[in-house]
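Progress report, Aim 2. The chain analyzed during this reporting quarter is listed below.
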Amino acid sequence: MTQLALVIDLDVCVGCHACVTSCKQWNTSGAAGPLSDFDPYGPDTAGVFFNRVQTFEVGQFPHTQVVHFPKSCLHCEEPPCVPVCPTGASYKRKEDGIVLVDADKCIGCKYCAWACPYGAREFDEDRGIMTKCTLCVDRIYDEATPPERRKPACVNACPTHARLFGDVHDPESEVSQAIRSRGGYALMPELGTRPANQYLPRRAMVAAGLQDGAAGGPAAAQPQLPSQAGMPPAMADTGECAAATELVRESESLLSRIFGRMTGGVASRRTAAASAASPTSSTRASAGRACSGCGCDKAAAAGAVADLAQHAGAASAAPQLAAARPGGR
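Predicted structure tokens for the chain:
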């Protein structure tokens, strides 16, 4: 059986809301509309939206990412909203698997909204009926529309091609191939609703271990940087190791120049030399404490920078202290 669905690529969705506005425009002027709006430009905006984009921040600082998450009806293969409808207004089409609402039968009891675990149902207060995403069923079968445009309005409007549309039961379709290669997943599969719509994970999140990806697929196999070619796997992290090493080297050089220009008595020079040696020796000693996998010393780099700031202040104060001593020494 054919099952039409959307596959959304979270890796390229930028949260522009083009899908939201195009969905609103098409369905308001089409068979599903008009869709109500209440105070659309005020602080308490409300209304009917078949498609919404929610934005989240994931991870822990400083390793955080912003994820834009489009959400609409998932057109489940076992939709819980259908059997609870007392009038049969909610139904699933056999020919293409799209879940729809018959407005003529709907009495606005909201049973389907309570049954939907995804919050995908939208109650139209003006008409007193339940509404939802239709996958633009009035558009995808319209023979007056050019074949390449017979897709949901949100798919045609997406500037980054983050939304794919097709038959997820056809193993050769674009959506099925994307799901296989990128490790596509459905929302809350443990509920047994078998959502038809699926999501492609972000490659960066997969690489960071924040999300699972397809084994061997592009989501799991991250390309190495050109400068990392030929390096052992443990050394090819992202170039941070080389940057840390360079930072330590520059810090030691700066400290050497600063304390070389310091003036004062022999005791001051000895104190400065000891201070200058301290971060260098600690840096070298801590080189044995390798960071995971590569042997670089990122912690030493951070410590050297802190020591640099401290000793730079001492260096700038040294001439003033010498001038304040009796006899100018």
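The chain has nine helices and eleven strands. The two ends are 94 Å apart (CA to CA). These observations will guide the mutagenesis work planned for the next reporting period.
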